[in-house]
Amino acid sequence: SGLAYSSYLGGLGYEDIYSVAGGGSNNTHVVGSTFSTDFPATANARQPGFGGTNDAYLARFVPSAVGSASLPYATFLGGSGDDQGYGLALLGTVAHVTGFTNSTNFPAAGSPFQPANGGYWDGFVLKLDSTIAGSTGLSYATYLGGLTTDATYAIAVEPSGAMTVAGQSFSANFPVVNAYQNLLVSGSDAVVARIDNAGTSADLSVTQTD
Q: From CA 61, how far away is CA 27, in angstroms rounded?
C-alpha cells in the first residue's frame, strides 16, 4: 500500500535514469540516456525525434496522475553522435541538465559559453523549461571541454540561475578561469566549473524618471 506510483519508461532499446529531482505541483523530473528510436517523447517535446547513436533525455512525471497523463513531458536531447544525460537540478520549472556528448551538432541555445565541440567528448550544460512546448523551452545550452575527453556528471543551481557542474577531464586545454589549479596534473583530473551568465530570459522592462 506504500507504493503510490511506479512505471516503466522506455522503448525497444536500452534506457537508464541517472538523476531525479522533485519540483512543485507534484512534478518529478528525471534525466538519463536512451538507445531507443521509439522512446516515448511527447508532442510538446523540445526534440521529438531521436538524434543518433544514443541520446540524453529529460522527462517530467506527475505521480499523482494515472496512465498517459502522468507523463506530460518527455524529450530527446542529442545530436547525431553519442549523448549521455547525467546531472539534474531544478529551479522553479526550469531543469538544469549536464552530461557529456561527442556530437558535433548537439543543440546549442542562448549565448553559449562554448558553441562548438572542443574535441572528442565534451561536457554539456543546458537549461530547459518543460512547461514550455517546442524549441523555445531550451533557453541555454553549451559545450564545455577541450581537445580530448571531458564529462560532467553533477550540477547544482543557485537562486540567481548560476550553475556549478563537476566532472572529469582528460584535456590539457580544458577552459580554466580564476583557477585553483591551472594545469592538468595526471592523465585525468576532476573539474569544477561555474557558469553565471546563462540567464533564462532577457529583462526588457523600461522605467522613466523625470
A: 6
